[in-house]
Protein backbone atom coordinates (compact mmCIF):
# COMPACT_ATOMS: atom_id res chain seq x y z
CA UNK A 1 0.00 0.00 0.00
CA UNK A 2 1.39 3.40 -1.01
CA UNK A 3 1.41 6.45 1.27
CA UNK A 4 -1.33 8.13 -0.79
CA UNK A 5 -3.49 5.00 -0.63
CA UNK A 6 -3.09 4.98 3.16
CA UNK A 7 -4.24 8.61 3.37
CA UNK A 8 -7.22 7.88 1.12
CA UNK A 9 -8.26 4.83 3.16
CA UNK A 10 -7.99 6.87 6.36
CA UNK A 11 -10.39 9.45 4.92
CA UNK A 12 -12.86 6.79 3.82
CA UNK A 13 -12.64 5.00 7.19
CA UNK A 14 -13.42 8.24 9.06
CA UNK A 15 -16.06 9.41 6.61
CA UNK A 16 -18.81 9.21 9.23
CA UNK A 17 -17.00 11.77 11.36
CA UNK A 18 -15.85 13.89 8.42
CA UNK A 19 -19.28 13.93 6.70
CA UNK A 20 -20.67 17.15 8.21
CA UNK A 21 -17.31 18.93 7.85
CA UNK A 22 -17.07 17.89 4.19
CA UNK A 23 -20.66 18.90 3.36
CA UNK A 24 -20.34 22.26 5.12
CA UNK A 25 -17.10 23.01 3.28
CA UNK A 26 -18.69 22.01 -0.04
CA UNK A 27 -21.70 24.21 0.68
CA UNK A 28 -19.43 27.18 1.46
CA UNK A 29 -17.61 26.61 -1.83
CA UNK A 30 -20.93 26.41 -3.69
CA UNK A 31 -22.23 29.69 -2.25
CA UNK A 32 -18.88 31.39 -2.89
CA UNK A 33 -18.98 30.14 -6.50
CA UNK A 34 -22.59 31.33 -7.02
CA UNK A 35 -21.73 34.82 -5.82
CA UNK A 36 -18.68 34.85 -8.10
CA UNK A 37 -20.85 33.80 -11.07
CA UNK A 38 -23.06 36.82 -10.50
CA UNK A 39 -20.20 39.27 -9.87
CA UNK A 40 -18.36 38.33 -13.07
CA UNK A 41 -21.45 37.80 -15.25
CA UNK A 42 -21.19 40.10 -18.31
CA UNK A 43 -24.96 40.67 -18.27
CA UNK A 44 -24.80 42.58 -14.98
CA UNK A 45 -24.31 46.10 -16.28
CA UNK A 46 -24.25 49.44 -14.47
CA UNK A 47 -27.08 50.67 -12.24
CA UNK A 48 -27.60 51.58 -8.60
CA UNK A 49 -29.24 48.31 -7.54
CA UNK A 50 -26.97 46.15 -9.69
CA UNK A 51 -23.89 47.89 -8.36
CA UNK A 52 -25.17 47.40 -4.82
CA UNK A 53 -25.77 43.70 -5.55
CA UNK A 54 -22.20 43.35 -6.81
CA UNK A 55 -20.73 45.10 -3.78
CA UNK A 56 -22.93 43.12 -1.41
CA UNK A 57 -21.92 39.80 -2.94
CA UNK A 58 -18.26 40.84 -2.98
CA UNK A 59 -18.48 41.60 0.75
CA UNK A 60 -20.23 38.25 1.26
CA UNK A 61 -17.35 36.51 -0.55
CA UNK A 62 -14.88 37.93 1.99
CA UNK A 63 -17.14 36.98 4.91
CA UNK A 64 -17.59 33.41 3.68
CA UNK A 65 -13.89 32.98 2.96
CA UNK A 66 -12.72 34.29 6.34
CA UNK A 67 -15.37 32.28 8.14
CA UNK A 68 -14.46 29.14 6.16
CA UNK A 69 -10.82 29.54 7.20
CA UNK A 70 -11.62 29.52 10.90
CA UNK A 71 -14.29 26.83 10.47
CA UNK A 72 -11.88 24.47 8.71
CA UNK A 73 -9.09 25.29 11.18
CA UNK A 74 -11.29 24.46 14.18
CA UNK A 75 -12.72 21.34 12.54
CA UNK A 76 -9.31 19.90 11.65
CA UNK A 77 -7.93 20.55 15.14
CA UNK A 78 -10.96 18.81 16.71
CA UNK A 79 -10.63 15.78 14.41
CA UNK A 80 -6.92 15.40 15.11
CA UNK A 81 -7.53 15.35 18.86
CA UNK A 82 -10.03 12.52 18.42
CA UNK A 83 -7.48 10.44 16.44
CA UNK A 84 -4.62 10.42 18.96
CA UNK A 85 -4.94 6.69 19.60
CA UNK A 86 -4.75 6.02 15.88
CA UNK A 87 -1.64 8.19 15.60
CA UNK A 88 -0.09 6.28 18.48
CA UNK A 89 -0.47 3.01 16.55
CA UNK A 90 1.19 4.50 13.47
CA UNK A 91 4.12 5.82 15.53
CA UNK A 92 4.51 2.51 17.36
CA UNK A 93 4.91 0.80 13.95
CA UNK A 94 7.76 3.12 12.99
CA UNK A 95 6.10 6.18 11.41
CA UNK A 96 8.13 9.35 11.94
CA UNK A 97 6.58 12.67 12.89
CA UNK A 98 7.39 14.01 9.41
CA UNK A 99 5.61 11.06 7.79
CA UNK A 100 2.66 11.54 10.15
CA UNK A 101 2.41 15.21 9.19
CA UNK A 102 2.65 14.29 5.50
CA UNK A 103 -0.16 11.75 5.89
CA UNK A 104 -2.39 14.29 7.66
CA UNK A 105 -1.54 16.88 4.99
CA UNK A 106 -2.62 14.46 2.24
CA UNK A 107 -5.83 13.58 4.08
CA UNK A 108 -6.78 17.25 4.44
CA UNK A 109 -6.02 17.99 0.80
CA UNK A 110 -8.10 14.99 -0.34
CA UNK A 111 -11.08 16.30 1.63
CA UNK A 112 -10.36 19.88 0.50
CA UNK A 113 -10.15 19.09 -3.22
CA UNK A 114 -13.25 16.88 -2.94
CA UNK A 115 -15.13 19.76 -1.28
CA UNK A 116 -13.97 22.22 -3.99
CA UNK A 117 -15.03 19.92 -6.84
CA UNK A 118 -18.34 19.05 -5.17
CA UNK A 119 -19.09 22.70 -4.34
CA UNK A 120 -18.40 23.90 -7.87
CA UNK A 121 -20.54 21.14 -9.38
CA UNK A 122 -23.40 21.96 -7.00
CA UNK A 123 -22.96 25.64 -7.89
CA UNK A 124 -23.24 24.83 -11.58
CA UNK A 125 -26.39 22.78 -10.98
CA UNK A 126 -27.99 25.63 -9.04
CA UNK A 127 -26.50 28.39 -11.21
CA UNK A 128 -29.44 28.78 -13.59
CA UNK A 129 -31.96 29.06 -10.74
CA UNK A 130 -29.68 31.44 -8.83
CA UNK A 131 -29.23 33.76 -11.81
CA UNK A 132 -32.99 33.79 -12.47
CA UNK A 133 -33.78 34.71 -8.86
CA UNK A 134 -30.96 37.26 -8.79
CA UNK A 135 -32.26 38.89 -11.99
CA UNK A 136 -35.72 39.22 -10.47
CA UNK A 137 -34.40 40.59 -7.18
CA UNK A 138 -32.40 43.41 -8.79
CA UNK A 139 -35.26 44.28 -11.15
CA UNK A 140 -33.82 43.21 -14.51
CA UNK A 141 -36.31 43.04 -17.38
CA UNK A 142 -34.82 39.78 -18.67
CA UNK A 143 -33.25 37.02 -16.56
CA UNK A 144 -29.51 36.55 -16.84
CA UNK A 145 -28.50 33.80 -19.24
CA UNK A 146 -26.80 30.78 -17.69
CA UNK A 147 -23.07 31.33 -18.03
CA UNK A 148 -20.06 30.18 -16.03
CA UNK A 149 -17.47 32.99 -16.23
CA UNK A 150 -13.93 31.65 -16.20
CA UNK A 151 -13.05 34.29 -13.59
CA UNK A 152 -15.59 32.78 -11.16
CA UNK A 153 -14.23 29.28 -11.70
CA UNK A 154 -10.61 30.41 -11.34
CA UNK A 155 -11.28 32.56 -8.25
CA UNK A 156 -13.18 29.82 -6.40
CA UNK A 157 -10.64 27.12 -7.20
CA UNK A 158 -7.63 29.26 -6.35
CA UNK A 159 -9.10 30.78 -3.17
CA UNK A 160 -10.15 27.49 -1.57
CA UNK A 161 -7.04 25.63 -2.76
CA UNK A 162 -4.94 28.21 -0.93
CA UNK A 163 -7.24 27.94 2.11
CA UNK A 164 -6.92 24.15 2.38
CA UNK A 165 -3.17 24.30 1.69
CA UNK A 166 -2.60 26.79 4.50
CA UNK A 167 -4.80 24.82 6.91
CA UNK A 168 -3.05 21.57 5.97
CA UNK A 169 0.35 23.11 6.75
CA UNK A 170 -1.01 24.34 10.10
CA UNK A 171 -2.02 20.83 11.13
CA UNK A 172 1.59 20.01 12.06
CA UNK A 173 1.21 22.35 15.04
CA UNK A 174 -1.81 20.39 16.29
CA UNK A 175 -0.06 17.02 16.42
CA UNK A 176 2.01 16.23 19.49
CA UNK A 177 3.95 12.93 19.57
CA UNK A 178 6.25 13.44 22.53
CA UNK A 179 4.68 10.76 24.74
CA UNK A 180 3.41 7.63 23.04
CA UNK A 181 1.56 6.53 26.18
CA UNK A 182 -0.49 9.74 26.19
CA UNK A 183 -1.64 9.06 22.64
CA UNK A 184 -2.86 5.55 23.55
CA UNK A 185 -4.59 6.72 26.73
CA UNK A 186 -6.15 9.88 25.26
CA UNK A 187 -9.61 8.31 24.99
CA UNK A 188 -9.48 6.00 27.99
CA UNK A 189 -7.91 7.90 30.87
CA UNK A 190 -10.42 9.48 33.29
CA UNK A 191 -11.34 13.12 32.85
CA UNK A 192 -10.49 15.49 35.68
CA UNK A 193 -13.28 17.00 37.73
CA UNK A 194 -14.52 20.20 36.01
CA UNK A 195 -13.34 23.24 37.94
CA UNK A 196 -15.16 26.54 38.13
CA UNK A 197 -14.60 29.99 39.55
CA UNK A 198 -17.33 31.72 41.52
CA UNK A 199 -15.91 35.09 40.48
CA UNK A 200 -15.97 34.24 36.77
CA UNK A 201 -19.43 32.69 37.12
CA UNK A 202 -20.77 35.88 38.69
CA UNK A 203 -18.95 37.92 36.03
CA UNK A 204 -20.72 35.91 33.30
CA UNK A 205 -24.12 36.52 34.89
CA UNK A 206 -23.36 40.21 35.40
CA UNK A 207 -22.15 40.77 31.84
CA UNK A 208 -25.14 39.01 30.28
CA UNK A 209 -27.73 40.71 32.50
CA UNK A 210 -26.02 44.08 32.04
CA UNK A 211 -25.83 43.61 28.26
CA UNK A 212 -29.49 42.59 28.09
CA UNK A 213 -30.51 45.62 30.16
CA UNK A 214 -28.57 48.04 27.95
CA UNK A 215 -30.05 46.46 24.82
CA UNK A 216 -33.61 46.46 26.18
CA UNK A 217 -33.47 50.11 27.23
CA UNK A 218 -31.64 51.36 24.13
CA UNK A 219 -33.26 54.04 21.98
CA UNK A 220 -32.34 56.07 18.93
CA UNK A 221 -30.37 58.56 21.02
CA UNK A 222 -28.01 56.09 22.73
CA UNK A 223 -27.98 52.94 20.56
CA UNK A 224 -24.89 54.09 18.61
CA UNK A 225 -22.95 54.52 21.87
CA UNK A 226 -24.20 51.24 23.39
CA UNK A 227 -23.90 49.10 20.27
CA UNK A 228 -20.28 47.92 20.60
CA UNK A 229 -20.41 47.87 24.40
CA UNK A 230 -23.38 45.48 24.36
CA UNK A 231 -21.73 43.25 21.74
CA UNK A 232 -18.50 43.03 23.77
CA UNK A 233 -20.36 42.33 27.03
CA UNK A 234 -22.48 39.64 25.35
CA UNK A 235 -19.53 37.86 23.72
CA UNK A 236 -17.44 37.77 26.91
CA UNK A 237 -20.47 36.88 29.03
CA UNK A 238 -21.42 34.03 26.68
CA UNK A 239 -17.92 32.55 26.82
CA UNK A 240 -17.82 32.53 30.61
CA UNK A 241 -21.42 31.30 30.73
CA UNK A 242 -20.38 28.06 29.04
CA UNK A 243 -16.95 27.65 30.62
CA UNK A 244 -17.89 28.67 34.18
CA UNK A 245 -21.49 29.53 35.01
CA UNK A 246 -23.19 26.49 33.42
CA UNK A 247 -20.85 24.05 35.18
CA UNK A 248 -21.25 25.97 38.45
CA UNK A 249 -25.05 25.68 38.22
CA UNK A 250 -24.80 21.94 37.54
CA UNK A 251 -22.62 21.55 40.64
CA UNK A 252 -25.24 23.41 42.66
CA UNK A 253 -27.90 21.01 41.37
CA UNK A 254 -25.75 18.03 42.37
CA UNK A 255 -25.78 19.29 45.96
CA UNK A 256 -29.55 18.71 46.07
CA UNK A 257 -29.31 15.01 46.92
CA UNK A 258 -33.06 14.44 46.84
CA UNK A 259 -33.22 15.58 43.23
CA UNK A 260 -29.81 14.35 42.10
CA UNK A 261 -29.99 10.81 43.56
CA UNK A 262 -33.12 9.91 41.61
CA UNK A 263 -32.98 7.07 39.04
CA UNK A 264 -31.09 8.07 35.86
CA UNK A 265 -30.62 11.71 36.90
CA UNK A 266 -27.42 10.66 38.68
CA UNK A 267 -25.83 9.63 35.37
CA UNK A 268 -27.40 12.38 33.27
CA UNK A 269 -26.48 15.35 35.46
CA UNK A 270 -23.05 13.98 36.36
CA UNK A 271 -22.19 13.56 32.69
CA UNK A 272 -23.61 16.97 31.78
CA UNK A 273 -20.97 18.80 33.80
CA UNK A 274 -18.20 17.07 31.84
CA UNK A 275 -19.96 17.65 28.51
CA UNK A 276 -20.50 21.34 29.23
CA UNK A 277 -16.83 21.80 30.10
CA UNK A 278 -15.58 19.76 27.13
CA UNK A 279 -17.90 21.44 24.63
CA UNK A 280 -17.77 24.98 26.05
CA UNK A 281 -15.80 26.48 23.17
CA UNK A 282 -17.94 24.70 20.60
CA UNK A 283 -21.13 25.92 22.33
CA UNK A 284 -19.71 29.44 22.38
CA UNK A 285 -18.93 29.43 18.64
CA UNK A 286 -22.30 27.93 17.71
CA UNK A 287 -24.09 30.56 19.81
CA UNK A 288 -22.22 33.52 18.33
CA UNK A 289 -22.44 32.25 14.74
CA UNK A 290 -26.17 31.49 15.10
CA UNK A 291 -26.85 34.88 16.69
CA UNK A 292 -25.17 36.66 13.79
CA UNK A 293 -27.20 34.64 11.28
CA UNK A 294 -30.50 35.25 13.12
CA UNK A 295 -29.93 38.98 13.51
CA UNK A 296 -28.78 39.58 9.93
CA UNK A 297 -31.64 37.70 8.30
CA UNK A 298 -34.22 38.84 10.85
CA UNK A 299 -33.32 42.52 10.52
CA UNK A 300 -33.46 42.43 6.73
CA UNK A 301 -36.72 40.48 6.82
CA UNK A 302 -38.21 43.13 9.10
CA UNK A 303 -37.45 45.80 6.53
CA UNK A 304 -40.16 44.26 4.37
CA UNK A 305 -42.66 45.80 6.77
CA UNK A 306 -41.65 49.32 5.82
CA UNK A 307 -44.60 49.67 3.41
CA UNK A 308 -46.77 50.45 6.42
CA UNK A 309 -44.43 53.34 7.21
CA UNK A 310 -44.72 54.64 3.65
CA UNK A 311 -48.51 54.33 3.85
CA UNK A 312 -48.47 56.70 6.80
CA UNK A 313 -46.09 59.17 5.16
CA UNK A 314 -47.38 59.05 1.60
CA UNK A 315 -50.63 60.97 1.96
CA UNK A 316 -49.09 63.36 -0.57
CA UNK A 317 -46.67 61.07 -2.41
CA UNK A 318 -45.48 63.40 -5.17
CA UNK A 319 -43.99 66.78 -4.25
CA UNK A 320 -42.49 69.42 -6.55
CA UNK A 321 -40.90 72.62 -5.24
CA UNK A 322 -39.58 75.52 -7.28
CA UNK A 323 -38.10 78.94 -6.61
CA UNK A 324 -39.21 82.12 -8.34
CA UNK A 325 -35.97 82.09 -10.35
CA UNK A 326 -36.82 78.81 -12.09
CA UNK A 327 -37.92 79.63 -15.69
CA UNK A 328 -38.98 76.01 -16.35
CA UNK A 329 -41.48 75.79 -13.48
CA UNK A 330 -44.63 75.72 -15.62
CA UNK A 331 -43.20 73.16 -18.06
CA UNK A 332 -41.98 70.88 -15.27
CA UNK A 333 -45.31 70.94 -13.43
CA UNK A 334 -47.09 70.16 -16.69
CA UNK A 335 -44.71 67.22 -17.26
CA UNK A 336 -45.73 65.78 -13.89
CA UNK A 337 -49.42 66.16 -14.80
CA UNK A 338 -48.79 64.44 -18.13
CA UNK A 339 -47.12 61.53 -16.36
CA UNK A 340 -50.18 61.10 -14.13
CA UNK A 341 -52.41 61.02 -17.21
CA UNK A 342 -50.15 58.49 -18.95
CA UNK A 343 -50.37 56.12 -15.99
CA UNK A 344 -54.14 56.67 -15.59
CA UNK A 345 -53.72 57.77 -11.98
CA UNK A 346 -56.29 60.11 -10.49
CA UNK A 347 -54.79 62.85 -8.35
CA UNK A 348 -55.55 66.01 -6.44
CA UNK A 349 -53.15 68.92 -7.02
CA UNK A 350 -52.48 71.47 -4.26
CA UNK A 351 -50.32 74.56 -4.67
CA UNK A 352 -49.05 76.57 -1.71
CA UNK A 353 -46.37 79.22 -1.18
CA UNK A 354 -43.54 79.26 1.35
CA UNK A 355 -41.60 82.44 2.09
CA UNK A 356 -38.21 82.80 3.68
CA UNK A 357 -37.23 85.13 6.50
CA UNK A 358 -34.37 85.49 9.01
CA UNK A 359 -34.79 84.77 12.71
CA UNK A 360 -33.32 87.66 14.71
CA UNK A 361 -32.01 85.72 17.70
CA UNK A 362 -30.08 83.03 15.77
CA UNK A 363 -29.66 84.85 12.45
CA UNK A 364 -30.80 81.65 10.73
CA UNK A 365 -33.20 81.33 7.84
CA UNK A 366 -36.72 80.04 8.50
CA UNK A 367 -39.62 79.20 6.19
CA UNK A 368 -43.20 80.31 6.78
CA UNK A 369 -46.52 79.06 5.46
CA UNK A 370 -49.95 80.63 5.94
CA UNK A 371 -52.64 78.86 7.92
CA UNK A 372 -54.96 78.58 4.90
CA UNK A 373 -52.23 77.04 2.72
CA UNK A 374 -51.19 74.60 5.43
CA UNK A 375 -54.82 73.52 5.98
CA UNK A 376 -55.22 72.94 2.26
CA UNK A 377 -52.30 70.51 2.40
CA UNK A 378 -53.56 68.90 5.61
CA UNK A 379 -57.04 68.30 4.19
CA UNK A 380 -55.57 66.80 1.00
CA UNK A 381 -53.50 64.49 3.22
CA UNK A 382 -56.59 63.44 5.19
CA UNK A 383 -55.63 65.35 8.33
CA UNK A 384 -57.69 67.76 10.44
CA UNK A 385 -57.16 71.50 9.75
CA UNK A 386 -55.44 73.70 12.34
CA UNK A 387 -56.69 76.73 14.20
CA UNK A 388 -54.34 79.49 15.39
CA UNK A 389 -54.75 82.46 17.63
CA UNK A 390 -53.39 85.90 16.77
CA UNK A 391 -49.56 86.04 16.87
CA UNK A 392 -49.44 82.27 17.50
CA UNK A 393 -47.40 79.85 15.42
CA UNK A 394 -46.73 76.13 15.28
CA UNK A 395 -43.46 74.45 14.44
CA UNK A 396 -43.93 71.89 11.63
CA UNK A 397 -41.89 68.72 12.21
CA UNK A 398 -41.30 66.90 8.93
CA UNK A 399 -38.66 64.43 10.12
CA UNK A 400 -39.15 60.78 11.01
CA UNK A 401 -37.98 61.17 14.60
CA UNK A 402 -39.00 64.26 16.51
CA UNK A 403 -35.91 65.10 18.54
CA UNK A 404 -37.06 68.64 19.29
CA UNK A 405 -37.85 69.77 22.79
CA UNK A 406 -38.46 73.11 24.43
CA UNK A 407 -35.88 74.96 22.32
CA UNK A 408 -38.51 75.33 19.57
CA UNK A 409 -41.16 76.61 22.00
CA UNK A 410 -40.12 80.25 22.06
CA UNK A 411 -40.97 83.62 20.48
CA UNK A 412 -39.73 84.05 16.91
CA UNK A 413 -38.74 87.55 15.73
CA UNK A 414 -38.46 88.06 11.97
CA UNK A 415 -35.65 90.49 11.10
CA UNK A 416 -36.90 91.72 7.71
CA UNK A 417 -40.49 92.37 8.83
CA UNK A 418 -39.92 93.09 12.54
CA UNK A 419 -42.84 90.77 13.36
CA UNK A 420 -43.10 88.42 16.34
CA UNK A 421 -45.11 85.24 16.97
CA UNK A 422 -45.03 82.72 19.81
CA UNK A 423 -44.45 79.04 19.03
CA UNK A 424 -46.97 77.19 21.20
CA UNK A 425 -46.92 73.69 19.71
CA UNK A 426 -44.87 71.25 17.62
CA UNK A 427 -47.00 69.45 15.04
CA UNK A 428 -46.03 66.31 13.12
CA UNK A 429 -46.51 66.54 9.36
CA UNK A 430 -44.37 63.83 7.73
CA UNK A 431 -46.30 64.26 4.48
CA UNK A 432 -45.00 67.84 4.27
CA UNK A 433 -41.57 68.85 3.02
CA UNK A 434 -39.74 71.78 4.58
CA UNK A 435 -38.59 73.07 1.21
CA UNK A 436 -35.55 72.67 -0.98
CA UNK A 437 -33.08 73.93 1.60
CA UNK A 438 -34.50 72.23 4.69
CA UNK A 439 -34.97 75.31 6.90
CA UNK A 440 -37.23 75.24 9.97
CA UNK A 441 -40.85 75.56 8.87
CA UNK A 442 -43.56 77.43 10.82
CA UNK A 443 -47.28 77.82 10.15
CA UNK A 444 -48.66 81.24 11.14
CA UNK A 445 -52.07 83.00 10.92
CA UNK A 446 -53.12 84.45 7.53
CA UNK A 447 -53.23 88.01 8.86
CA UNK A 448 -49.66 87.82 10.14
CA UNK A 449 -48.49 86.10 6.96
CA UNK A 450 -49.82 89.00 4.82
CA UNK A 451 -47.83 91.52 6.91
CA UNK A 452 -44.48 89.92 6.06
CA UNK A 453 -42.30 92.21 3.99
CA UNK A 454 -39.14 91.70 1.93
CA UNK A 455 -39.09 87.87 1.76
CA UNK A 456 -35.53 86.74 1.03
CA UNK A 457 -36.94 84.07 -1.29
CA UNK A 458 -40.23 82.43 -2.26
CA UNK A 459 -40.82 78.75 -2.91
CA UNK A 460 -43.83 77.37 -4.79
CA UNK A 461 -44.86 74.03 -3.38
CA UNK A 462 -46.94 71.60 -5.47
CA UNK A 463 -48.39 68.51 -3.84
CA UNK A 464 -50.02 65.70 -5.85
CA UNK A 465 -52.20 63.47 -3.66
CA UNK A 466 -53.28 60.04 -4.92
CA UNK A 467 -54.42 56.83 -3.26
CA UNK A 468 -52.32 54.59 -5.53
CA UNK A 469 -49.02 56.04 -4.35
CA UNK A 470 -47.04 52.86 -5.10
CA UNK A 471 -47.75 53.44 -8.81
CA UNK A 472 -46.05 56.85 -8.73
CA UNK A 473 -42.62 55.27 -9.20
CA UNK A 474 -42.45 56.48 -12.82
CA UNK A 475 -43.93 59.93 -12.19
CA UNK A 476 -41.57 62.84 -12.85
CA UNK A 477 -38.75 60.85 -14.43
CA UNK A 478 -38.76 63.23 -17.38
CA UNK A 479 -37.66 66.08 -15.07
CA UNK A 480 -34.18 64.60 -14.82
CA UNK A 481 -31.72 62.84 -17.06
CA UNK A 482 -32.05 59.08 -16.86
CA UNK A 483 -29.68 56.15 -16.91
CA UNK A 484 -31.23 52.70 -16.58
CA UNK A 485 -34.36 54.19 -15.04
CA UNK A 486 -32.45 55.93 -12.24
CA UNK A 487 -32.82 59.58 -11.27
CA UNK A 488 -29.27 60.75 -11.94
CA UNK A 489 -30.00 64.27 -10.81
CA UNK A 490 -32.81 63.84 -8.32
CA UNK A 491 -32.86 66.24 -5.38
CA UNK A 492 -29.53 67.90 -6.18
CA UNK A 493 -29.22 68.49 -9.90
CA UNK A 494 -30.75 71.96 -9.97
CA UNK A 495 -30.98 74.31 -6.97
CA UNK A 496 -33.94 76.04 -8.64
CA UNK A 497 -36.26 73.08 -7.99
CA UNK A 498 -36.56 69.73 -6.24
CA UNK A 499 -38.79 66.73 -6.73
CA UNK A 500 -39.64 63.61 -4.74
CA UNK A 501 -41.86 60.62 -5.31
CA UNK A 502 -42.82 58.20 -2.54
CA UNK A 503 -43.47 55.48 -5.14
CA UNK A 504 -39.97 55.83 -6.58
CA UNK A 505 -38.35 55.97 -3.13
CA UNK A 506 -40.27 52.89 -1.99
CA UNK A 507 -39.48 50.97 -5.18
CA UNK A 508 -35.75 51.75 -4.85
CA UNK A 509 -35.74 50.86 -1.15
CA UNK A 510 -37.50 47.53 -1.79
CA UNK A 511 -35.06 46.62 -4.56
CA UNK A 512 -32.13 47.34 -2.25
CA UNK A 513 -33.83 45.46 0.60
CA UNK A 514 -34.49 42.40 -1.56
CA UNK A 515 -30.91 42.47 -2.81
CA UNK A 516 -29.49 42.71 0.72
CA UNK A 517 -31.78 39.93 1.97
CA UNK A 518 -30.88 37.76 -1.01
CA UNK A 519 -27.17 38.17 -0.23
CA UNK A 520 -27.54 37.76 3.54
CA UNK A 521 -29.80 34.72 3.31
CA UNK A 522 -27.15 32.51 1.73
CA UNK A 523 -24.44 33.79 4.09
CA UNK A 524 -26.78 33.11 7.03
CA UNK A 525 -27.38 29.59 5.74
CA UNK A 526 -23.61 29.01 5.56
CA UNK A 527 -23.33 30.11 9.19
CA UNK A 528 -26.25 27.98 10.34
CA UNK A 529 -25.08 24.85 8.50
CA UNK A 530 -21.60 25.35 9.94
CA UNK A 531 -23.14 25.58 13.42
CA UNK A 532 -24.92 22.28 12.81
CA UNK A 533 -21.64 20.78 11.64
CA UNK A 534 -19.93 21.80 14.88
CA UNK A 535 -22.61 19.93 16.81
CA UNK A 536 -22.45 16.89 14.53
CA UNK A 537 -18.73 16.26 14.55
CA UNK A 538 -18.45 17.01 18.26
CA UNK A 539 -21.06 14.34 18.94
CA UNK A 540 -19.43 11.74 16.71
CA UNK A 541 -15.87 12.39 17.86
CA UNK A 542 -17.05 11.35 21.35
CA UNK A 543 -18.98 8.34 20.04
CA UNK A 544 -16.34 5.69 20.84
CA UNK A 545 -16.00 6.98 24.41
CA UNK A 546 -19.79 7.00 24.81
CA UNK A 547 -20.04 3.44 23.53
CA UNK A 548 -17.60 2.18 26.17
CA UNK A 549 -19.38 4.18 28.87
CA UNK A 550 -22.83 2.76 28.08
CA UNK A 551 -21.45 -0.76 27.59
CA UNK A 552 -20.20 -0.59 31.18
CA UNK A 553 -23.52 0.76 32.50
CA UNK A 554 -25.46 -1.86 30.51
CA UNK A 555 -23.66 -4.62 32.40
CA UNK A 556 -25.39 -3.52 35.62
CA UNK A 557 -28.87 -3.67 34.10
CA UNK A 558 -29.45 -0.53 31.99
CA UNK A 559 -32.72 -0.90 30.03
CA UNK A 560 -33.56 0.64 26.65
CA UNK A 561 -36.06 3.02 28.26
CA UNK A 562 -33.43 4.19 30.75
CA UNK A 563 -30.91 4.57 27.94
CA UNK A 564 -33.33 6.91 26.17
CA UNK A 565 -33.89 8.87 29.40
CA UNK A 566 -30.13 9.40 29.76
CA UNK A 567 -29.17 10.12 26.15
CA UNK A 568 -32.11 12.32 25.09
CA UNK A 569 -31.52 15.10 27.70
CA UNK A 570 -27.82 15.10 26.84
CA UNK A 571 -28.53 15.48 23.12
CA UNK A 572 -31.15 18.12 23.81
CA UNK A 573 -28.51 20.03 25.74
CA UNK A 574 -25.95 19.61 22.97
CA UNK A 575 -28.29 20.75 20.20
CA UNK A 576 -30.61 23.27 21.79
CA UNK A 577 -28.76 25.12 24.55
CA UNK A 578 -26.54 27.05 22.08
CA UNK A 579 -29.52 27.76 19.83
CA UNK A 580 -31.69 28.78 22.80
CA UNK A 581 -29.00 31.18 24.05
CA UNK A 582 -28.65 32.55 20.49
CA UNK A 583 -32.44 33.06 20.42
CA UNK A 584 -32.28 35.03 23.67
CA UNK A 585 -29.38 37.14 22.37
CA UNK A 586 -31.33 37.79 19.16
CA UNK A 587 -34.51 38.82 20.97
CA UNK A 588 -32.66 41.49 22.93
CA UNK A 589 -30.79 42.57 19.79
CA UNK A 590 -34.08 42.97 17.93
CA UNK A 591 -35.51 44.93 20.85
CA UNK A 592 -32.60 47.35 20.59
CA UNK A 593 -32.94 47.58 16.80
CA UNK A 594 -36.66 48.25 17.15
CA UNK A 595 -35.76 51.77 18.20
CA UNK A 596 -34.35 52.40 14.73
CA UNK A 597 -37.58 51.43 12.97
CA UNK A 598 -40.96 53.11 12.97
CA UNK A 599 -42.65 49.78 12.25
CA UNK A 600 -42.84 46.62 14.33
CA UNK A 601 -40.26 43.88 13.76
CA UNK A 602 -41.99 41.36 16.05
CA UNK A 603 -43.72 39.33 13.32
CA UNK A 604 -40.66 39.03 11.07
CA UNK A 605 -38.43 38.26 14.07
CA UNK A 606 -40.74 35.49 15.23
CA UNK A 607 -40.92 33.96 11.75
CA UNK A 608 -37.12 33.88 11.38
CA UNK A 609 -36.50 32.43 14.84
CA UNK A 610 -39.27 29.83 14.51
CA UNK A 611 -38.01 28.87 11.06
CA UNK A 612 -34.47 28.25 12.28
CA UNK A 613 -35.84 26.49 15.36
CA UNK A 614 -37.93 24.12 13.22
CA UNK A 615 -34.89 23.24 11.10
CA UNK A 616 -32.90 22.53 14.25
CA UNK A 617 -35.65 20.23 15.59
CA UNK A 618 -35.64 18.19 12.37
CA UNK A 619 -31.84 18.02 12.43
CA UNK A 620 -31.93 16.93 16.10
CA UNK A 621 -34.42 14.12 15.43
CA UNK A 622 -32.35 12.75 12.55
CA UNK A 623 -29.06 12.81 14.48
CA UNK A 624 -30.67 11.42 17.65
CA UNK A 625 -32.06 8.48 15.71
CA UNK A 626 -28.66 7.65 14.19
CA UNK A 627 -26.81 8.17 17.47
CA UNK A 628 -29.14 5.87 19.43
CA UNK A 629 -28.78 3.26 16.71
CA UNK A 630 -24.98 3.27 17.13
CA UNK A 631 -25.17 3.09 20.94
CA UNK A 632 -27.75 0.25 20.97
CA UNK A 633 -25.66 -1.69 18.49
CA UNK A 634 -22.63 -1.36 20.77
CA UNK A 635 -24.33 -2.56 23.99
CA UNK A 636 -26.29 -5.47 22.54
- Briefly note the structural class of the backbone: alpha+beta
The percentage helix is 55-70%
Shape: elongated
Mean pLDDT: 76
The total count of strands amounts to 11
Q: State the end-to-end distance.
A: 35 Å
- Amount of beta strand: 5-15%
Rg computed from alpha carbons, rounded to a whole number of angstroms: 33 Å
- Strand order within the widest sheet? 5-6-4-7-3-2-8-1-11
Number of helices: 20
The parts where pLDDT drops under 50 for at least 5 residues are 482-494
Biggest β-sheet, characterized? Answer: 9 strands, mixed
How do you describe this structure in short?
Helix content is 62%, strand content 10%. It contains 20 helices and eleven strands.
What do these coordinates show?
This protein has 636 residues and is an alpha+beta fold. It has helices at residues 3-13, 15-39, 48-82, 84-92, 97-137, 150-170, 180-184, 198-216, 223-254, 257-260, 265-278, 280-302, 307-313, 329-342, 371-380, 446-450, 502-541, 543-554, 560-594, 602-635; strands at residues 318-323, 348-358, 365-370, 392-397, 411-414, 419-428, 440-444, 458-465, 482-483, 486-487, 497-501. The protein has 20 helices and 11 strands. The strands form 2 sheets. The protein has a 9-stranded mixed beta sheet with strand order 5-6-4-7-3-2-8-1-11. The chain has a two-stranded antiparallel ribbon with strand order 9-10. A hairpin with a 4-residue loop joins strand 5 and strand 6. Helix content is 62%, strand content 10%.
